[in-house]
Amino acid sequence: MATSVQKAVTAGGVLVGIATGIVTNLITNRWSWSLAAALAVLAAAGIWLALLTRTAPGRSRHHVRADHDGRIENSGATGRDGADITQTATRRGVITGSPVTARGADVEQETDNRGHIINSPSDMQ
User: Fold this and answer.
1) What is the b/e burial string over 25-61, where b = at least 16 CB atoms within 10 angstroms of the residue's CB?
2) Three-class SS state of 25
3) Residue 117 Rama label (left phi>0; alpha psi -120 to 50; beta)
4) CA-CA distance, 92 to 59, in Å (whole number)?
5) How many Å apart are CA 20 and CA 18, to the nearest integer?
6) Tens place of pLDDT per residue across the chain (125 aa)
């Protein structure tokens, strides 16, 4: 889910894009240094906003659920840049030795009904 800051940056990017289009139309009709400077500033602002949305890290989440005699052992998780990691073992399901490393990705490990996930590390980007 996007935060209010991410939404504001996205909206700003749209407005900069519209303004860039308008100045581009004006500069093709009549050349002036002030329009050229405005176009350069808008282009720089557009690039900056694009990079800001590209590199803005999100909050990572790790959900672990082991119930009805399920077990999760030695299967840690490391999430970055908005990763969403879920590990679930239910009804005697077992996850063992299967760490998850995720960067900006959604990863899910799930087993139930005496199923096993053993030594199956995940590395997602």
Assistant:
1) eeeeeeeeeebeebbeebeebbeebeeeeeeeebebe
2) helix
3) beta
4) 31
5) 5
6) 456 777 788 888 888 888 988 988 888 888 899 988 999 999 998 888 887 766 446 777 888 888 888 888 888 788 888 888 888 889 988 888 888 888 888 888 888 888 888 887 777 76
CA distance 27 to 6: 31
Alpha carbon 90 to its chain's center: 29
Amino acid at position 23, single letter? V
Give the list of residues 6+ apart from residue 25 with CB closer than 8 angstroms, or none.
none
- Neighbouring residues of 43: CB distance < 8 A, sequence distance ≥ 6: 20
